[in-house]
From TrEMBL:
Its EC number is 2.7.11.1. Residues 337-423 form the Apple domain. Residues 525-811 form the Protein kinase domain. One of its GO terms (cellular component) is plasma membrane. It is found in: Cell membrane. GO terms for biological process: recognition of pollen; response to other organism. This is Receptor-like serine/threonine-protein kinase. It comes from Musa balbisiana (Banana). Residues 805-826 are annotated as: Disordered. Keywords: ATP-binding, Cell membrane, Disulfide bond, EGF-like domain, Glycoprotein, Kinase, Membrane, Nucleotide-binding, Serine/threonine-protein kinase, Signal, Transferase, Transmembrane, Transmembrane helix.
Amino acid sequence: MGSQCMGFAVLLLSLLLVSPASLSYAKDTLELDGYIEDGETLISADEIFELGFFSPGSSKYRYIGIWYYNFSTDTVLWVANREAPVPDTSGRLAVGGDGNLVVLNGSRSVLWSSNVSLSSNASTVQLLDDGNLVLNNTGRVVWQSFENPTDTYLPGMKVGLDLTTNVNQYITSWKSSDDPAPGNYSMGVDPNRSTQIFVWEGTKPRWRSGRWNGQVFIGIQNMVPTYIYGFKLSNFELEKKMYFYYTAFNSSHRYVLTWEGIEKHLTWKDDTKFWSTFWAQPITDCELYNKCGNYGSCTDENTPICSCLKGYVPAVEAEWSSGNWTSGCVRRTPLQCERNSSGGAGSVQADGFWKMEGVKLPDLSDWASGVVDEDGCQAACLGNCSCQAYAYVTGIGCLVWGVDLVDIHIFSSGGNDMYLRLAASEIQTKKKKSFVILIVVLAVVLSLGCIYLFFKCKKRIRGTARNAFYRRRGDRGIVSVDPNRDRDRAEGGVSFRISDESKDQKCQELPLFSFDSIVASTSNFALANLLGEGGFGPVYKGTLPGGQEVALKRLSRSSGQGENEFKNEVILMAKLQHRNLVRLLGCCIHGEERILVYEYMPNRSLNAFLFDPRKKGLLGWKTRYDIIEGIARGLLYLHRDSRLRIIHRDLKASNILLDKDMNPKISDFGMARIFGSDDNETNTKRVVGTYGYMSPEYAMQGVFSVKSDVYSFGVLLLEIVSGRKNSSFAHQDSSLNLLGSAWKLWNEDNVMEFVDPAIRDSCSPRQASRCVNVGLLCVQDRPNDRPTMSSVVIMLEGGTAAYPQPKQPTFSAERSPSDTESSTFGLRVASASNSITLLTAR
Ligand SMILES: *[C@@H]1O[C@H](CO)[C@@H](O)[C@H](O)[C@H]1NC(C)=O
Ligand SMILES: *[C@@H]1O[C@H](CO)[C@@H](O)[C@H](O)[C@H]1NC(C)=O
Ligand SMILES: *[C@@H]1O[C@H](CO)[C@@H](O)[C@H](O)[C@H]1NC(C)=O
Ligand SMILES: *[C@@H]1O[C@H](CO)[C@@H](O)[C@H](O)[C@H]1NC(C)=O
Ligand SMILES: *[C@@H]1O[C@H](CO)[C@@H](O)[C@H](O)[C@H]1NC(C)=O
Ligand SMILES: *[C@@H]1O[C@H](CO)[C@@H](O)[C@H](O)[C@H]1NC(C)=O
Ligand SMILES: *[C@@H]1O[C@H](CO)[C@@H](O)[C@H](O)[C@H]1NC(C)=O
Ligand SMILES: *[C@@H]1O[C@H](CO)[C@@H](O)[C@H](O)[C@H]1NC(C)=O
Ligand SMILES: *[C@@H]1O[C@H](CO)[C@@H](O)[C@H](O)[C@H]1NC(C)=O
Ligand SMILES: *[C@@H]1O[C@H](CO)[C@@H](O)[C@H](O)[C@H]1NC(C)=O
Ligand SMILES: *[C@@H]1O[C@H](CO)[C@@H](O)[C@H](O)[C@H]1NC(C)=O
Ligand SMILES: *[C@@H]1O[C@H](CO)[C@@H](O)[C@H](O)[C@H]1NC(C)=O
C-alpha cells in the first residue's frame, strides 16, 4: 500500500510538473475569458499551424501571428496586431468580454480587436488545420483570419471582389522584414472585373497577371497549367464574388506579397526541408506595369528594352532617346477611318492589321461577346473606328482594345498573338520591304542550292540544318493571317550545307562582337585562357572590357562539320531564354572565323564533378536533386514551353553546365532540332548523339522524338543519383550495367544501395526512390511508355500520389548499330569517353 501510494504521488507530481506546458500546447481553442500569454501558443489539431506571440526580424516588438508549426516563426502567415505591437512580453491574446478576439497589453488595454458587433459574448476561437483562425459566436462564424489576410495567400482562402457591393479585399505587404505594418504594396483582383490579379504600389498598378484563360494567367510567362498552380476562378456569376482559389494537395504552398512588392509562390519541399520559390513577379523591368509607356513595347533582351509599336513614334523624342519612356508613343499615320473628310473616293485603302507575336496582351481590353473565331474578332475590330487592336485567345475569346494600349511586354517564349490596327500605308512599306527580302532570300537559297549540288558530287551530305529566316519576335507583320505558317516553316526544314559564301548572314539579331574585341578579351587566344577542346573546336575564357567573363566557342577552321551546328545553335539560342539554359550573348563572324559568345559558367560542367572521385562529394544530395529538377525544367521548356518545339538530341552530363550557385544550364544546341507541333516523331539519316544516352529507337532506327530526350534525361538522372557513368560498366550481364542495376535494386526495394556512396549519408530515401522510379520510367524501351517532361517535372516535385510502375529496360541501345550510317556515329562514340563537350574544362 505504501509503495502504491508512493507511486501515485510520483505520478501526480510528474503530472503537475508537466501539465502547465502540455495543457497550453495541446489546445487549439480559446473559450470566453480564455487567453494565452506571451510564450504560450495555440496549435491546430493535426499540429500543422501554430499561433502565438513573435518578434519579426530584428524587431523587439511582440505581435500575434500564425505560422507553420513545424517551421520557425520565419514563416509567419498572418499577423493580428500589425499596427499595434505589444512593446514587451506582457501581452495577451484573449476572447474579450464582448465576445471579440482581442490583443491586450500589460495593463490590459485593447491594442487590437477583431471588432465585429456581437449580440452575445458566447464566443470561441479556434485555429484550424488549414491555418484559418475562426471566431464562433453562438454557433456561427462571425470573423475569420482568411477573410482578413495580411501578406500571405493560403490554399482555401477566398479573397476577392464582391460584385454586389464592389468591396474588394486585398493582400497587403509588410512595411519591411522587421515590421508587419501595412506596406506600400497590395494585391488583389482587378476591380474592373477582368479576371486579372494586380499588384499595386499605393494606388498605382505595379504588375498584372494578364487575364485568366481557364488554365493559366496569360500574362505570366511560362506559367504551367498543372496541379502546382491548382488555381481556379470562383463561379462569380453564381457566388457574386470574384476570387481565385487553389488547393495545395499534400505539400505546403503559399503566395506571399513581399515587402519589396514581389509576388512569390513558395513551395515547401518535404525532403529537403526548405522553401523554394516556384515563381516570383515582377522581377524583370518589363514585368513592371507599362514600363515603356502607352503604345510602347518592352523586351527584356533588347537594349534599350523599350521600343515603339510598329507604326508608332515616340511622343516626345528627346525624352524617349534619353531613356525616359513615361510619355510613350503616338501613331505616325492616322487611320483611314479617322480621316472622315476625304471619304467617298474609291481609291482610298482600308486600314489593315499588323501581327505581333509572343505578346503579353495590353491591359484594359474589352471582351467582344458572341464572337466565335478570329475572323469574327477581326470584323468586330474593323467595324469600330476606335478599336486599336484585337486578339483571339483560346479559353477567353475575342479581346478588343478601344483605349490606349498599355503595358505591352514581348515574351521570349509563350505569349499571345495580337493584331495591331494600322493605316494601309504603314503596312505597305513593310510589304515592299518583305518582297525585297524575299527576292534576296530566294537568290541566296538558289545559290546555296547550286553549291549544295556541287558539294554533293564530291562528298556525302552530313548535316541537316534549318533554313530559318526568322525575324525578331513580336514584330512579324502580315495582313491576312495563316495560323499554320509557323508550323509549316518549322516542319519544312531544308537540308543544306552553308558554304563560306554565305558569310553575309547576320547574327540572328544577336549582338555582333568584333573579332578584335574577341582577340583582346582572350589575350589573342592565349593557352592560359583555353577552357577545353570541344567537338567543333576550342573553348576559351574571355574577359570583356566591362569585366564580364564570357566563354567563347571557336569553330576550328578545319572542321567543316561545325558550320551547320554553328548556324543551328545561333538560330536556336537566339530565341531561347530560360534559367536552365545557357545563354548565348552574341556571336562573331570574321572571315573564316565563327565564334559564339556565352555566359561564363564558373563551375564548369556536371561531368567534371560527378565522375571525379575527388570532387563528387562536393555535390551533396540536395544539390544533385536541384540539378535534376533544373535540367527537367530546362528540357520541359525546350519541349513544350518555348515557341519552337525543340529536341536537344545530345543531353548528357558534359552538356550540363553549372553556374556559380550550382544551378544547372543545358548547353550545346548544335544537334538540336526544331519540331513541328503536329509531328511527334521524325526520321533522320544521320544519327547524332552520344553513346549510352541514346534511346533504342534512335540508335537503331534513327527515329527521334521528344521521347528520345526523355530517355537521355532518364540515363542522366540515374547517373546523377549513382555517380556512375552509364558507359562505364557496360557488361553483358544486364544486372551490372547502370540501368540494369537501377532496375534490380529498385525492385529489391534497396534504392539506397544505388545511391552514390559518397553522398549516401545526406540522401533522403524518399527522394532517391522517387528519382530512381522516374529515371526508370524514362528509360523504358517503348517511347510511348516514357512520360513527357511535364509529367517528369510533376513527379519530381512530388505532386502526384501514385507513380506508375516502370517496365524493365532491355538496354538495346548498348549494341552498336551496324548499318552504313554509323560512320559519324562511330566518331561520336569514339570521342564520347573523353569530354567532348564544349565549354568544358578538364
Ligand atoms: C512535422 O515534422 C514531423 C517531424 O519531422 C513530421 O513527422 C510531420 O509530418 C511534420 N508535419 C507536417 C505537417 O509537415
Ligand atoms: C457575458 O455576457 C453575460 C450576459 O450579457 C454577462 O453576464 C457576462 O458577464 C459576460 N461575460 C464576460 C466575461 O464579460
Ligand atoms: C497599454 O496601452 C495603453 C493605451 O495605449 C497605455 O496607456 C498603457 O500605458 C499600456 N500599458 C503598458 C503596460 O504598456
Ligand atoms: C471598430 O470598428 C468601428 C467601425 O465599425 C471603428 O469605428 C472602430 O475604430 C474600430 N475599432 C477598432 C479597435 O479597430
Ligand atoms: C465553429 O463553427 C463551425 C461552423 O459552424 C463549426 O464547424 C466549428 O466546430 C465551430 N468551432 C467551435 C470551436 O465551436
Ligand atoms: C514606401 O513608400 C515610401 C514613400 O513613398 C518610401 O519612402 C519607401 O521607401 C517605400 N518602401 C518600399 C519598401 O518601397
Ligand atoms: C478600369 O478601367 C478604366 C477604363 O476602362 C481605367 O481608366 C481604370 O484605370 C481601370 N482601373 C483599374 C484599377 O485598372
Ligand atoms: C520623364 O518624363 C515625364 C513626362 O515628361 C516627366 O514628368 C518625368 O519627370 C520624367 N522623368 C525623369 C526621370 O526624367
Ligand atoms: C471627323 O468628323 C468629326 C465629326 O463629324 C469631327 O469632330 C472630327 O474632327 C473629324 N475628324 C477629322 C480627322 O477630320
Ligand atoms: C562554384 O563557383 C563559385 C564561384 O566561382 C565558387 O564560389 C563555388 O565554391 C563553386 N562551387 C563548387 C562546388 O565548386
Ligand atoms: C505519334 O503519334 C501517333 C498518332 O498520333 C502515335 O500512333 C505514335 O505512337 C506517336 N509516336 C510517338 C513516338 O509518340
Ligand atoms: C496525400 O497523401 C496521402 C497519404 O500519403 C495520400 O493517401 C493522398 O492520396 C495524397 N493526396 C494527393 C492529392 O496527393
